[in-house]
Amino acid sequence: MLPAGGETADLLPLAVAIPLLGAVVLVLAGRLLPRTGVDAVATAFAAATAAEVALLWARLGDAGGRAVSWAGGWTPHGGHSVGVVLVADRLGAGIALLVTVLVAAVLVYSWRYFDEPPTRHRGTFPALLLLFEAGMCGFALTGDLFDAFVFFELMGVVAYALTGFRIEDPRPLHGALSFGVVNSLAAYCSLLGIGLLYARTGELGMAQIGAALAGHRTDTLTVTAFVLVMAGLLVKAAIVPFHFWLPDAHAVAPTPVCMLMSGVMVELGLYGAARVHLTVFAGPGGIPAEAVTRTLGTLGALTALTGAVMCWQQRHLKRMLAFSTIGHAGLWLLGLSLSGSSATAGTALYVAGHAGVKAALFGLTGVLLDRHGSVDEHGLYGTERGSPYTGALFLTGALALAGLPPFGTALGKAVAEDAAAQHLPWLPALYVLVSALTGGAVLRAGLRIFRGAGPRPEPRASDVETSGSGEEPEVRDPRRAVPRTMTAVPAALLLGALALGLWPAAARALATAATAFTDRNGYLAQVVGQAAPLPLAPPPEAAWTAPGVLLGLLSTAAAVALAFAALHPATTVLRPLSTAARGADRHLIVPLRRLHSGRLGDYVAWLMVGLAGLLAALAAQI
């Protein structure tokens, strides 16, 4: 494997610098430009960043090369360094490219989305989006653990501000507060873990720490540092029991922000967890792979089931989509915990396809909020019968979420299922179940809203607080037609998810990227420079197979059946199923719903319980 050239390495800092510069320009010039000018400037900077990262992705090549950039020329001496290092392999550059494409799409979607802001605040929202992009790109490309924390915190602080952007409504402020407190506490834990690693090794670079840990045995300090560093990443990834903040934040955040949080921010937490584990802790002196697989794999399965079950229970569309993200994040953590290139390739494909589908579904939910000031599945019953185009997009997104071939979600799911089955034969059933429940819930909502399917739902007292009725519309001019960009962008995102499943070259490129990502020795050799990297192993097969297609059709059929059963519970053949569902609701679902209390103190307590449990589980195995 050959390193990428110096010209390629020079592209790495630009992925952070361009959106930062754009944010500064918007803050300074926003009050001088008309709204159209602000939108044009913001979109231009986002498009320039996307083009620059696409060039970086192309230059890294299919051979699995890496680009390493030392800021200010502070290169290592004797294996030690004090400089800031950016490292791009194809998977890191790929997720950065996904970030830039989604940010550009969200900026286009946001044209004319909000009310006309005061002149002094005209550039605030797009400037925050560009800052968000800079933090996410920097996190995806950094090779330094402390700088990863800095970029992660930049991303988090901007996300708090974006969540509470509508300060005239107390609900976004409450959601932003819960989001900020829980994530900040987890970030402090991560910083403490970084401090422990620095005390042990005297290094902050991921590769340098990984190489230095080889001279030490695995002990309590190593395990504690691993758990603490993982805290911030698993909280951002909304892994059970660190997930409680996510549905609350999504329920109140502006729709364009939800598109980014579920589309890429949660995924970046999982990417960071996999990067830190593979680079820092996967070698001698780190955490045994079997312990990580068992512990994180169990957390992933628990997260997938919790997210899927809670998704099915929602009528608030934003909370429904948020719990769907939690369910799929559990599947991705499960895949990444297996540590093989095949599982990583499938997860990468799944993430890329899901980003387009989930962002599109959130965008279409924004259309409903714009038209009706509501995201309540029951309250919106039959209100959109006259919107066949929007309805077709929403139902298509639901089927793609359920794993319908040939969407990219289905291809990633198929490759991940095949890899998971090699470890435990029953794991593909978990993928099918989670896809069916999450896709079925969204399909049920879409059929009720856009087709008026089934009888009008009866109100339930337990749903009052999270029904989604009485929301503040994000545009308050009832005479205004929904901008075309609000449906064109979701359509383009769904087409992108479809193209990912139909374009074999994209799947092959991500399979090669996954092989390089899991090549720990090559990463250390190139960054630390202590040895020549070995040739890469052949990439795994990432293509459609008959079992993968059949499992995709099975999960889609199950989603359709679940939606039909929910819409027509009085059907004779479905009455026993409805009776069993009511019993499960009383004994399982109600206690689970009560755990999601909305109380900040409860969420902090669960954070502490989760960290203690993770530490105990790893310590017991090591």
From TrEMBL:
Family to which the UniProt record says this protein belongs: Belongs to the CPA3 antiporters (TC 2.A.63) subunit D family.
Span list, region Disordered: 454-481
Protein name, entry field: Multisubunit sodium/proton antiporter, MrpD subunit
Keyword match RNA-binding: no
TM ranges: 12-33, 91-111, 123-142, 148-165, 177-200, 220-239, 251-271, 321-341, 347-369, 389-408, 428-447, 486-506, 544-567, 603-620
Membrane topology summary: Multi-pass membrane protein
Presence of the UniProt keyword Transport in the record: no
